[in-house]
Each structure stands twice: as structure tokens, then as C-alpha cells.
Design brief:
Blueprint: H1 18-26, H2 37-40, E1 45-50, E2 56-63, H3 66-84, E3 95-103, E4 111-117, E5 123-130, H4 133-145, E6 152-155, E7 158-162, E8 167-168, H5 169-175, H6 184-201, E9 211-217, E10 222-228, H7 252-261, H8 264-284, H9 286-296, H10 304-318, H11 329-344
Antiparallel strand pairs: 1-2, 2-3, 3-4, 4-5, 5-7, 6-7, 8-9, 9-10
Helix pairs in contact: 4-9, 6-7, 6-8, 8-11
Length: 345
């Protein structure tokens, strides 16, 4: 757990194939949007977004031409309706677009849209991003294999994602983890299960600012769940440790927490619990997963060198030479899933 992991190269964007578009249409993920990502890029200049403590957030607010603002805002309201109310425009008549923020870092350079209810000032967010095939596969695997449902839409080169509410992982360990009311063993348990799930699904780069904590009060305690909010590094990298959150220095507080409160036996127990839950999800979504596998295997989603490096690393890690026969990242994920099924059944 002591070796830190660094991602040195930016992952390229992978185009959405015709087969993937058909898959998205089948599962009602494809939509004809009133405006797209390129429409939001039509701004003249930006101003920095400062948080309530006066710190630069590294997001910027674009300034659009006056003649284009109504078209953009009306289009975004319609998109929000499509994402959340099956396109019922009446639901968003009393809402308005309060702010559009633009992020200059990250692979998809997202726009974050803040929409506000005029009746009570309650606000919500959603995101407009460049569509990336590997990211879409990550969203699909998260939706089918994790305990979390994901809401998103795709239109050609535009990806719309819901906002996933929660406390960012880096803020959680700074400000919340010491709360005396929180059971630290439960927090450590959730991190162990999240670490196991990421490796099986090959979801990479889960540094603390790429996931959030959701806290649910129960009748006698608090329940915790980690939710990923960034799928940019879905099965691309060749280094096995990229898919294990425990190896990122940003997650060291969680690693220390697990080492302090858990034994090898309890870690193994929680890993088995997560694997058992994965088997239940695989059974219920087996047809969709098979369809996704067939589509993904026709898409180049990584480099040949990365595939070779990863399958060798996993063959050594699991002591399983079957990994050496894998020809793609999708083959590796499928073998991960088969191994889980064999172990649990």
C-alpha cells in the first residue's frame, strides 16, 4: 500500500462507434438534444469562479453573446427536462439557468450547469461534456455492476450527465472523518469494497477528488457509500495499481484508517461481500452486459502496449495465466467477472 501511482499521459478521447450508438438507442441513452457541446463553446471570454471562501475553483464562467443567451438557456432547460422528467417541458417552466461554468482541465472539458427553481430557490446541477466512448462504457458498467444507478444521455459528440451529490473524498477526510458520531470502521469498510469494485471493473484514477461520499442516517448509526464521479480512466491504463484506489497518495488517509481498524480477515470478508453483490447484479443484468461486451470489443479503447502490460500484471497478481490470453481490455474485465462468479458460486 505504500507505493504511490502517477498517471503521466492524458488519455485520448475515443469516438462512439455505430454499434455503440445502436446500443445506447436500445437502452434509451440516446437522445436528440436541442443544443450540443459545441454550442456552449461559442463564448467570447470567461471570468474565474471563486468559492465562498474566496478561493479560485479552477472553473470559469463563460460570457456569451447577448443574442445567443436565450437560445442556449432554453436549450439547457429542455435538456434538463429530458434528463429528469422524460422531456416534460411543463416541469421546467418555472426554472431558469443561473450559471454556466466551464472546466479547462480534464479530458472532456465539461460544462457545469446550475438550474434554479424560481418558486423556492432550490437548485440542481447537470453536466455537458464531450462524448467519449470509454467514459460511456464506464457509466454503463457503473450502472449495471455497482450499487449505484447513473443517469445520462448521448447525442453524437455530446454527453449529458446528472450531478452526483455527495461530499468530495478529499474534503471528507479533511473535515468529516473525525466526526465522533461516525463509525470509522464503516468508513474503512466502504473504502475496501470500493477498492475491490474498481479493480474488477477496471475503473481507474479514483483519487479522492474523483469520488464522493454519501452519508445516510440510519436508526442507530450512519451508513456510508462511495460514488465515482469521474469515468475518464475507464480501462485505459496498463498499470494495475491505477485501478486500485489504495495506491494513490490522495487516498492515504483512507488506507491508514483501514490499516488501523481492520484486520486481514475482515478486509477479506468485505471483499467477498462486494464480490457476492457483484454476482447478484451480473445475474440480473447478464443480457445487457453481454450486449455491452460485444459492442465494446469492436472498439479500440486502449493501446496494445497497455493491454499487454495490464494482462501480465493481473496474471501475476491473481496467479492466473488465463489473463495472458486476453486480447483487449474488455476481455480482461470479462475474465475478472468470470473469476468472481467462480469464486462465489
Amino acid at each position: 500500500m505504500s507505493e504511490d501511482v502517477t498517471i503521466h499521459k492524458k488519455k485520448p478521447l475515443f469516438p462512439i462507434s455505430a454499434e455503440l450508438h445502436r446500443y445506447l438507442h436500445t437502452y434509451q441513452r440516446e437522445a436528440r438534444l436541442p443544443i450540443g457541446y459545441n454550442d456552449l463553446m461559442n463564448f467570447r471570454e470567461t471570468i474565474p469562479v471563486i468559492d465562498k471562501h474566496g478561493k479560485d475553483t479552477l472553473w470559469e464562467s463563460p460570457i456569451y453573446p447577448p443574442y445567443d443567451i436565450d437560445r442556449i438557456h432554453n436549450g439547457l432547460k429542455k435538456i434538463y427536462a429530458m434528463l429528469n422528467t422524460s422531456g416534460n417541458i411543463d416541469i421546467v417552466e418555472h426554472k431558469y439557468i443561473d450559471r454556466i461554468d466551464y472546466c479547462t482541465f480534464g479530458n472532456t472539458h465539461p460544462f457545469r450547469i446550475r438550474i434554479v427553481n424560481r418558486l423556492n430557490d432550490v437548485y440542481d446541477y447537470f453536466y455537458v461534456k464531450k462524448a467519449d466512448a470509454s467514459r460511456i462504457y464506464g457509466l454503463e458498467l457503473e450502472h449495471t455492476l455497482s450499487p449505484n444507478h447513473v443517469n445520462y444521455l448521448v447525442d453524437h459528440t455530446t454527453l449529458i450527465e446528472e450531478h452526483i451529490a455527495g461530499i468530495p473524498g478529499d474534503i471528507f477526510h479533511h473535515k468529516y472523518m473525525q466526526n465522533a458520531e461516525y463509525n470509522r470502521i464503516r468508513i474503512a469498510k466502504e473504502f475496501v469494497k470500493f477498492n475491490e469494485r474498481c479493480l474488477i471493473m477496471l475503473l481507474g484514477d479514483m483519487r479522492s477528488y474523483n469520488f464522493v461520499w454519501q452519508i445516510t442516517p440510519d436508526f442507530d448509526d450512519f451508513q456510508f457509500r462511495i460514488r465515482c464521479i469521474d469515468f475518464d480512466q475507464q480501462f485505459y491504463e496498463g498499470n494495475r495499481r491505477v485501478y486500485m484506489p489504495q495506491f494513490f497518495k490522495e487516498n492515504l488517509p483512507y488506507v491508514k484508517l483501514a490499516m488501523e481498524h481492520l484486520t486481514d480477515k475482515t478486509v477479506w470478508q468485505y471483499q467477498q461481500e462486494e464480490r457476492s453483490m457483484l454476482v447478484h447484479r451480473i445475474r440480473s443484468e447478464r443480457h445487457r452486459l453481454a450486449h455491452l461486451r460485444d459492442v465494446a470489443n469492436r472498439n479500440p479503447l486502449s493501446s496494445p502496449d497497455n493491454i499487454v502490460t495490464l494482462k501480465k500484471g493481473l496474471a501475476d497478481y491473481y496467479k492466473n495465466r488465463l489473463y495472458l490470453k486476453c486480447n483487449s481490455m474488455v476481455d480482461i474485465v470479462e475474465l475478472n467477472i468470470k473469476n468472481v462468479i467462480r469464486q462465489i458460486i
